[in-house]
Amino acid sequence: MLVAVLLPAISFAQISSNPNKFLGNITTRGSVEAGGNIPKYYTLWNQITCENESKWSSVEGTRGSFNWSGAENAFTYAQNHNFTYKFHALVWGAQYPNWLESLSAKERFAALTNWFDNAKQKFNTLPMIDVVNEAVGNHQPGNPMMKETLGGGGKTGYDWLIKAFEMAYERWPDAILIYNDYNSIRYDINNYITLVKTLRDAGAPIDAYGNQSHELSSISTSELSSALQRQQNELQMPMFVTELDIDIANDQQQKAQYQKVLPIMWEAPYCAGVTLWGYIHGSTWVDNSGLYKDGAERPAMTWIKEYMATDAAKNAVGPLPGTKKEASIYIRPAALKVARGDALPICVRARMATKTIQKVDLYVEDELIATMTEAPYKTVYNVPSSIASGRKTIKAIVTTTDGSTYERQSGFTPLASTKKRKPYNDVVPQLPGTINVTEYDDGAAGVTYNNASRSSAITSTGQWMDYTVDVAEDGLYSFDAEIASSSTGGMFHLAEYAEDNLNYLTEFVEVPKTGGTSVFKTLHGRLQMPLTAGRHIISLMIDTGGFYINKITFTRYEEAEGSCLLKAFNDTYGVGDHITVSARATARNSSVSEVRFYADNILIGTSTTSPYQCVFVPTEKRSYSMTAIAVNAEGKEKMSNPRILEVTSDTPTDIRTVTSDDETDTPTYNVMGMPVGDDYRGIVIKNGKKYIKK
Predict the structure, then answer these.
(1) Which helix (H) or strand (E) holds 266?
(2) Residue 685: enclosing H or E segment and its boundaries?
(3) Residues contacting 134, CB < 8 A, separation 6+
(4) pLDDT value of position 499
(5) The pTM is what?
(6) Within 13 Å of residue 89, how many CA atoms lie on the same side as its CB?
(7) H or E stretch including 76?
(8) Where does residue 453 fall: left (phi above 0), alpha (psi -120 to 50 degrees), or beta otherwise?
(9) Are 200 and 206 in contact (CB under 8 A)?
């Protein structure tokens, strides 16, 4: 495991001696040193980013095999030369491993979580991280897949990005967490600001925004100054110039453009550092951005050195001296939209690296609404019924015991609606217990629900509903959802927008087809994290719709002492076969009350006496994941390991062909559950034997 030493100040052996911000660069063809007659890296730059070596595809090109050598080399080099390092990038809709595309959304999320965990294992602490890269619109073709992988748009439209930042903050709370994108200054500034602002307003742990700055080869000083100031006015966070290059072949024109853009960016008090994206001509991603050509400095490089020696460059103020994050301050309103006259809970997550918080003052617009001196820092803002329309600013000012202050902004939008949030019919479901899916909380659209109906349980992609519930006691809970579907591909998850995290209570639950939209079956699952006793708002998020869901029943889960073993499937099976599924179950210091059997988490039968078994009739040629759960007399559960049942034939096995004049036995039962004498796909069941009619 590598541990970054967060240094009190940047080393001054390089071009920049400014203690408030860095002038950095990237690796060259996978190496730190450019070689040849080029000066050593550490004599030029005081920050390093791997161009490719820390991207997911470079590290885990083969699933489960991680190659960190390139990233480790750069990280160690930065440590040895006393300057800082930026990890690039955790989530990106490009340069992800090819094998990711063959996985389901559920499997992709597990793989992405494993990617985060492995990065944490390798780099226990990191100074800076590009958490998400190029997620605006269709900047990358893999963005829709990544969006699905991380839970979709959800309530904010950007929940998938909020989740990515929460996952990064859980692992690297001291790192400066950055959103990074291109065309953010010139061609796509509106969408860029909307994305970053939404993340900030929703309380995501985003610390800074990154402008790649590839599009500046022809920008004017007035346009650049105006765009940067507009970003800062809207976002009020530190800014990084993350990938600056000027792609001009003519030496003097390149120099002139650097003279235009670099001082404006560098001297902005909200600029925390500038990373140039390559410096060797012929070794950058574009043709003419290099600063060294044939081993010699181009005029732009000579000028950069001269500029960095000026008082203006050396004394420019920055928002993160030493590239250290002292304050982690994130404001999480309960919703970004709220009805007029309603109550809006607000929580300020505040954490200091080295100082002690004395108080947190919270403002809506210019009105002080709360002064909080103890964590958790939370209050409720009663939205006036007469409040004017339009977005409102929330501001937190954190004062530490040494008198220092730190500020963070957020916001919300009052709606024209005056329909307050409350439980459906003023009845709060109790857990353990049942939620009826159409009985989501009363309130305004976009506040308690999206694209939902009281009269229909049909789902649509992007739909979500909130349910206020009371949890009786702390613990893990399992759930049973009544679902119906005529096809596969449906998916949902349960979430909770907690004060300090966006919690995914369940995995992404895949909905198999049940035999039709009116054929309801029970889909079983378990929450991934415990619920605490008390009031919660649980959200049902429809990731891929098209199925019906009636109700969800929650049961407190406790694991039983004992065993549950599902018998192996060693025979050859076909569609329509009458397959006996058997389990052996024991309960230590108790008795087994029942054994439930599941195929792809769908309940297929329950047995209350030994031998515990049920009959399963597959309807498709494919693999089924079979499990059993033994329940003891106290209601505690023991789940078997899954067994795979392979159905390899489109027709039942052990079939003989008969003609219409063949004499057969009088039927006594029909394993398909059909009236005796009826057929099923041309198959007649008589006395336990299967016949194909001709």
Answers:
(1) helix 251-266
(2) strand 683-686
(3) 92, 93, 94, 140, 143, 180, 181, 182
(4) 86
(5) 0.91
(6) 23
(7) helix 69-80
(8) beta
(9) yes
Under 8 Å between Cβ of 693 and 664: no
| Among candidate residues 495, 472, 345, 492, the one with its CA nearest the CA of residue 421 | 345
List C-alpha distances in Å: 586 to 193, 279, 524, 615. 59, 68, 21, 21
pLDDT at 693 over 90: no
**Spacing of C-alpha 22 from chain mean position:** 30
Q: At what angle do helices 105-122 and 159-171 cross, to 10 degrees?
A: 30
Alpha-carbon distance 271 to 269, whole Å? 6
Q: Are 284 and 276 in contact (CB under 8 A)?
A: no
pLDDT computed for residue 683 by the predictor: 53
How many other CB atoms sit within 10 Å of the CB of residue 642?
Answer: 15
DSSP states of 279-330 as a string? -BTTSSSSSS--SEETTEE-HHHHHHHHHHTSHHHHT---SSGGG---EEEE
Q: Which residues, in sequence order, are CB contacts of 373 under 8 Å at separation 6+?
A: 358, 359, 360
Query: What is the gyration radius of the CA atoms in the chain, in angstroms?
Result: 30
- Tokens 């949030």, residue? 421
The Cα 509–Cα 529 span in angstroms is 15
φ and ψ at residue 251, rounded to 5 degrees: -60, -45
Cα 135 vs. chain centroid, distance in angstroms? Answer: 12
Q: How many CB atoms lie within 10 A of CB 663?
A: 5
Q: Provide the strand spans (E) within 51-125.
A: 84-92, 123-125
CB 464 within 8 A of CB 449: yes
What distance in Å separates the CA atoms of residue 406 and residue 212, rounded to the nearest whole number? Answer: 26
Distances (CA, A) of 542 to 143, 149, 166, 522, 647: 19, 13, 21, 17, 30
CA distance 357 to 403: 10
* 3-state secondary structure string across 434-477: EEECCCCCECCECCCEECCCCCCCECCCCCEEEEEEEECCCEEE
Please tell me whether the peptide bond between 127 and the residue prior to it is cis, using omega within 30 degrees of 0.
Answer: no
Comparing 2-6, 129-133, 325-329, the range with the smallest average pLDDT is 2-6
Mean pLDDT over 96-106 rounds to: 97
Residues 497, 539 contacting (CB under 8 angstroms):
yes
Average pLDDT, the chain: 93
Packing angle, helices 189-201 and 159-171, rounded to 10? 60
Of 556, 573, 560, 580, the C-alpha closest to 640 is 560
Instruction: Give the rounded distance of the alpha carbon of 382 from its chain centre.
Output: 31
Of 589 and 211, the one with more pLDDT: 211
